[in-house]
Amino acid sequence: MIPNQWYAITSSSSVKPGKLTGLKRFGRNLVLYRSRTGEIGCVTDLCAHRGASLTKGCMADDHIKCPFHGIEYDIKGKCVYVPSEGRASKDDFSRFDLKSYETREIGGIVFVWYGDRTPDHEPDYFDVITDRSYTYDEIMDEWGVHYSRVIENQLDVSHLAFVHRTTIGRGNRCLVNGRRLYGLTIIRCRPVLIMKWIPGKRRSLPRNV
User: Fold this and answer.
1) Integer Cα distance of 103 and 93 in angstroms
2) Is 178 exposed, middle or buried (0-12, 13-18, 19+ CB in 10 A)?
3) Do 88 and 112 share a domain, yes or no?
4) What is the residue range of 51's domain?
5) Does residue 17 have a cis peptide bond before it, meaning omega lies within 30 degrees of 0?
6) Which residues touch 11 (CB under 8 Å, ≥6 apart)?
7) Residue 51 DSSP symbol
8) pLDDT greater than 80 at residue 189
9) What is the DSSP letter of 84?
10) 75, 111, 181, 192: most buried by Cβ count inside 10 Å?
11) C-alpha to C-alpha distance for 130 and 10, rounded to whole angstroms
């Protein structure tokens, strides 16, 4: 992955209040959770004490509670309570703080900052995803390939007439044969919004695209 960039990692609907959502992104196991006020947190899915999977734990007063020893972390991954030390403990538990990831929610998509630097810009996105006059749905389709191959595939329309000749590539309409008009189709796949040109009738573009 390219470091110090925002990445769309899942849909907002997959992160429920009071529930822990485990997923693997950037080759790392992560856990996401939503506070009672709607804020989303994203931290590494390994307790800093004994490496237990936090996804197997639960939420307690907007904290992640480890399933092994009950250690609690706030929405930024800070260790706020170690049961074996008691509520009255004044000890510094910062050695147990988790790696946390900056998050943003835009248009029903959860973005996470992947990198060691503090974010120096906000996520890039098409304005249409926040336009309530448009409706769209989503699907999950996992591909067992490097992400760069997925991007390449979505941008490469010239292969349609050969690889997909009996479906979306029928009639050789995507082959270059003089001037052609293209229309814009918007496809939203979890967790990425894909916009690509395909042969067809001229269509008006969505505003701000």
Assistant:
1) 24
2) exposed
3) yes
4) 5-117
5) no
6) 108, 109, 110, 138, 190, 191
7) -
8) no
9) G
10) 111
11) 16
Residues 6+ apart with CB under 8 A from 87: 81
Shared domain check, 20 and 109: yes
Amino acid at 61: D
Q: Report the length, in residues, of the chain.
A: 209
pLDDT digits (tens, 9 = 90+) for 73-131: 999 999 999 999 988 888 999 999 999 999 999 999 999 999 999 999 999 998 888 88
CB 40 within 8 Å of CB 33: yes
Q: How far apart are CA 178 and CA 167, in angstroms?
A: 23
Based on the structure, what is the number of domains in the chain? Answer: 2
Task: Write down which residue in 97, 117, 137 finishes a domain.
Answer: 117
